[in-house]
């Protein structure tokens, strides 16, 4: 069992508060990713769990036991840093063996355990090499091997693959996922890369300015962002956000988007849904991902004509900026669907993909 529970955790550096009243339960064997922009407090949170940083108040429990007064070495937790932190004068074998030798394990046990971990990480052929002879990806495999070899209760990783190039990062991502499936160690992983978070996490913890914004499975935070921050931080290309005004005309509902923008047809029950969340038709923001902005070459029922402003061809699909009032809505289209900037297309909003937020508080409305 390695459940990690943070209760009312606060952290100040001098007068600056970098973790605000954090409550979080990480289940045994879960892979949790702390995600947020630089400076949001995710590394500090991870270091606090590890015992590398004191907390100012609150409680951290591992397996039900309060650990905030225990040294890092007494918490039975392994930490993998972004920079590999290997011992340069030791071979790969000796680097991985280091924690086992420090724990006084017998030579035969050390040998067996190093080989099991090296085989899982596919680095057996590197065991006699020194770190200076390894690529970045292999060095990080060794660092992960050293962390896993003691079979710690939990493994904490701080941007462990952030320094690798894009292709290697992708390979290592799948490898980390496979390792977790095989080992099932409780894992807490810090990154600012939302793609990494989406692909690795059982649950993502989105943080901003020391405040937990949302916790949920990758698909939950993608499909039901709790607020404007999460909506814009998760997903690439980013979700369109625009101020919007609800208009009703007879039984029909329309949404006027942006400043001086067009009005898009919406389901007739939308005003009632927004009203039920405590808002009228004003002060709301629309969120819609580019795949929810549907374009056609010919006018169709419910479409409005919009001018294409910029076309970004991304290979598998294009992202097209459509002028709406003084702003733009980004649409995802089939590759080459809109020929050139200046062309007019006919767009509608897929009502099943709309999100509404209180513009002032940023909180999701429905
Ligand atoms: P990054 O991805 O850049 O590491 P982060 O989200 O992990 O960012 P933290 O490293 O936890 O953020 O830092 C949170 C805030 O605390 C930042 O404003 C940082 O400057 C500040 N901070 C971190 N460590 C210290 C320290 N030892 N002394 C003073 N301030 C610190």
Automatic annotation (TrEMBL):
Q: Do you know which InterPro entries this protein is assigned to?
A: AAA+_ATPase, ABC_transporter-like_ATP-bd, ABC_transporter-like_CS, ABC_transpr_MalK-like, ABC_transpr_MalK/UgpC-like, Mo/tungstate-bd_C_term_dom, NA-bd_OB-fold, OB_MalK-like
- The yes or no answer to whether the keyword ATP-binding is present is yes
Q: Name one Pfam family in it.
A: ABC_tran
Please name the PROSITE patterns in this protein's record. Answer: ABC_TRANSPORTER_1 (PS00211), ABC_TRANSPORTER_2 (PS50893)
Task: Report keywords, A-Z.
Answer: ATP-binding, Cell membrane, Membrane, Nucleotide-binding, Sugar transport, Translocase, Transport
GO molecular function annotation: ATP binding
Which top-rank group of organisms is this from? Answer: Bacteria
Does this entry carry the keyword NADP? no
Q: Which residues form the signal peptide?
A: none
Q: Enumerate the spans annotated as ABC transporter domain.
A: 4-234
Membership in a protein family: Belongs to the ABC transporter superfamily.
State the protein's name.
Multiple sugar transport system ATP-binding protein
Q: Which organism is it from?
A: Kaistia geumhonensis
């Amino acid at each position: 069992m390695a459940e990690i529970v943070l209760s009312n955790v606060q952290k100040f550096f001098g007068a600056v508060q970098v973790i605000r009243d954090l409550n979080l339960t990480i289940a045994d064997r879960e892979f949790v990713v702390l995600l947020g922009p630089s400076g949001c407090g995710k590394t500090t949170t991870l270091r606090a769990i590890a015992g590398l940083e004191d907390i100012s108040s609150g409680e951290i429990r591992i397996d039900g036991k309060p650990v905030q007064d225990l040294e890092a070495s007494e918490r039975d937790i392994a930490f993998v840093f972004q920079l590999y932190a290997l011992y340069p004068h030791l071979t790969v074998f000796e680097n991985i063996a280091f924690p086992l030798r420090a724990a006084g394990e017998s030579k035969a046990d050390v040998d067996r355990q190093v080989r099991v971990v090296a085989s899982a990480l596919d680095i057996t052929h590197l065991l006699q090499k020194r770190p200076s002879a390894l690529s970045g990806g292999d060095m990080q495999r060794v660092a992960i091997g050293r962390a896993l070899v003691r079979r710690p209760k939990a493994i904490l990783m701080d941007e462990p693959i952030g320094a690798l190039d894009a292709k290697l990062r992708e390979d290592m991502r799948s490898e980390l996922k496979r390792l977790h499936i095989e080992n099932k160690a409780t894992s807490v992983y810090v990154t600012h890369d939302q793609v990494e978070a989406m692909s690795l996490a059982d649950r993502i913890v989105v943080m901003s300015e020391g405040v937990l914004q949302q916790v949920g499975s990758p698909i939950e935070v993608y499909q039901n962002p709790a607020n404007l921050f999460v909506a814009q931080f998760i997903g690439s290309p980013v979700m369109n956000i625009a101020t919007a005004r609800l208009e009703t005309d007879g039984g029909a509902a329309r949404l006027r988007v942006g400043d001086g923008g067009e009005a898009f047809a919406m389901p007739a029950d939308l005003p009632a849904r927004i009203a039920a969340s405590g808002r009228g038709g004003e002060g709301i923001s629309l969120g819609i991902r580019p795949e929810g902005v549907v374009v056609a070459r010919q006018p169709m029922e419910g479409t409005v004509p919009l001018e294409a402003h910029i076309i970004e061809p991304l290979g598998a699909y294009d992202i097209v900026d459509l002028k709406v009032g003084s702003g733009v809505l980004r649409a995802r289209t089939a590759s080459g669907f809109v020929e050139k900037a200046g062309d007019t297309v006919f767009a509608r909003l897929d009502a099943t993909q709309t999100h509404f937020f209180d513009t002032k508080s940023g909180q999701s409305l429905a």
